[in-house]
Amino acid sequence: MNENYKDLETTGIEDSAKYVAIAINAIPLAGGVMAGIANEVIAKRQSRRLNNFLISLAEKFKSVSEKINRDFISKEEFQDLTEDIFSKAAEIKQKEKLEALKAIFLNTVLSDKPNYNEAVEMAALIERWQSRHIILLKILSNPIEADEQRGRVVGNGGGFSTSISHVLKLLLPTWDEEQIERTWLELYDARIHKTDGVRTTLTDSGIHQLENRLTEYGIKVIRYIKEPA
């Protein structure tokens, strides 16, 4: 977060709302529209968490402003998407879900061919999900990177056999087996990946067991919820 806002955590909610207005109004082209919607949402549900979300989004938006789709932000669909994302963010507490909403918004306005209906569908999906669904989806989107971030706790295997459940337990040591299996099956039911169970015994190829398991829809979802560089 920008240094101008580094003390926001200890700032009063009313004062932090002023920082939101400053940050959003500074966005080229779209700032006026976004600030108006933000003010309406803040008036209904003031919270430091919401203010932090809005400032973070504004700062990222400014950093990519030269790449935004100017035609899209001039349309009513842009206003509708902004209201939808901001309103959902006001009701959400989990960091992973807020980050996903921010990414959906940014990826849509940066797209050469923004799809409003698809973006709204993705936002609704994130609203229904829990953080655990997003965490597991991100692991499946790049298993090797996920393993490296955790100190290569899985590696390339080498034993005689393993299972998806065992691999995920190494990556998610604070999750119990029930939580792993339930989350996996819920993502399967949502057509995010292709494998219906986690306990089947498999030849041990380590972290590579998780590769290439996403469906086309799962790949589309991760493209929306991965924040642009």
What is the strand and helix layout of this fold?
Blueprint: H1 13-25, H2 31-44, H3 48-63, H4 70-73, H5 76-91, H6 95-110, H7 116-128, H8 131-141, H9 143-149, E1 161-162, H10 164-171, H11 177-189, E2 202-203, H12 216-225
Antiparallel strand pairs: 1-2
Descriptive notes:
With 229 residues, the chain is mainly alpha-helical. The protein has two domains: 3-128, no CATH class; 133-225. It has twelve helices and two strands. The chain has helices at residues 13-25, 31-44, 48-63, 70-73, 76-91, 95-110, 116-128, 131-141, 143-149, 164-171, 177-189, 216-225, and strands at 161-162, 202-203. The protein is elongated.
Category by helix and strand content = mainly alpha
What is the residue-averaged pLDDT?
Answer: 90
Note the quaternary state here. Answer: single chain
What kind of sheet is the major sheet? 2 strands, antiparallel
**Topology pattern, helix = H, strand = E:** HHHHHHHHHEHHEH
Please count the helical segments: 12
**Strand order of the biggest β-sheet:** 1-2
Radius of gyration: 20 Å
Distance N to C terminus: 15 Å
General form: elongated
Low-confidence stretches: 1-8
Whole-number tally of structural domains: 2
- Provide the β-strand percentage band: under 5%
Q: How many distinct beta strands?
A: 2
- Helicity range: 55-70%
